[in-house]
Design brief:
Blueprint (H helix, E strand, L loop, with lengths): L3 H11 L9 H14 L7 H28 L2 H9 L15 H9 L23 H11 L6 E5 L5 H10 L2 E6 L2 H13 L5 E5 L12 E4 L5 H15 L5 E4 L3 H6 L4 E3 L9 E5 L2
Parallel strand pairs: 1-2, 1-4, 2-3, 4-5
Antiparallel strand pairs: 5-7, 6-7
Helix pairs in contact: 1-2, 2-3, 2-5, 3-4, 6-7
């Protein structure tokens, strides 16, 4: 460990192209490595902190450029290069986060939401859907301008906003926590996203007549989940739509006789279901 930070600093200094715009992923991952080593850094800490500031400044410049593109209506193209940028391997399964979450967090100007309320029974603590899974989901859904994606338990609104930015579809977030709704609305307004809306309220009282896709990252369990699924089942008697799910609620959806999986159900990947005719 003693030589790890000096070795990393030397490797980063030798990489003269690290500050170029197309090296965003490498800079984010370098910052993660620096963060991990700095608490035990000792003498090299000052040099590491200076490099850290340079990397963060380069990323901030790029995040601002992407935000400006979104405000102009060019967000799809601005994010396209990063949606599939990976290590050449298949999509990494699981609910862990990676450099794309730093990208999304840097581009979407949330700020700090207000203090959250105590969770009602059967509501699950908010975690955003990992960005790599959101981008993978959007590729598979192939949404168009006539689609409406409704995120049930939308938290800070990552999924509806990315759907609107990357596809032109309308995005709606339903969220019970007022502080999260206020933060998501402020973000959408700052990005000038006219096709995104956030509703503060219980998902059981949502208008299920709106939505060609409903997304759930296990926002609730038990009787709350059952009530929402029963409402969606009744809506499925009138029209067809899709449901995407991530996390433990996927097992519940897979057992619903009125739903059919869109493709093979793979552990640790967002599942897509279609209503049966």
């Amino acid at each position: 460990m003693d030589g790890a930070l000096p070795d990393l600093l030397e490797a980063l200094r030798r990489d003269r192209a690290l500050m170029e715009p197309d090296r965003l992923r490498e800079r984010i991952e370098a910052l993660d490595r620096l963060d991990a080593l700095l608490p035990d850094a000792g003498a090299p800490a000052q040099c590491a902190q200076a490099l850290q500031q340079q990397l963060e400044a380069a990323n901030a410049t790029q995040f601002e450029a992407i935000r400006e593109a979104i405000q102009r209506g060019d967000g799809r193209e601005a994010l396209q290069r990063w949606r599939r940028a990976g290590d050449g391997a298949a999509l990494r399964a699981g609910d862990g986060y990676d450099w794309r979450d730093e990208l999304v967090g840097g581009v979407l100007p949330f700020g700090e939401p207000g203090e959250a309320s105590a969770l009602p029974p059967e509501m699950v603590f908010y975690q955003p859907t990992p960005a790599r899974h959101v981008f993978d989901l959007l590729d598979r859904l192939a949404l168009g301008a006539d689609d409406v994606l409704v995120d049930l338990g939308s938290g800070l609104g990552h999924v509806p906003m990315l759907a609107a930015i990357c596809s032109g579809a309308r995005g709606i977030g339903i969220e019970i926590e007022p502080a999260y709704v206020a933060s998501a609305r402020a973000c959408a307004q700052a990005l000038r996203l006219a096709n995104v809306a956030f509703v503060q309220g219980d998902a059981r009282a949502a208008d299920f007549a709106v939505g060609s896709v409903f997304h759930l990252y296990t926002p609730f369990t038990g009787s709350v989940l059952r009530s929402v699924l029963d409402a969606l089942r009744r809506e499925a008697g009138c029209r067809a739509f899709r449901i995407s799910s991530f996390g433990p609620c996927t097992r519940v959806l897979a057992a619903e006789p009125w739903l059919a999986s869109d493709d093979a159900l793979l552990p640790g990947r967002v599942a897509i279901f279609r209503t049966r005719s």
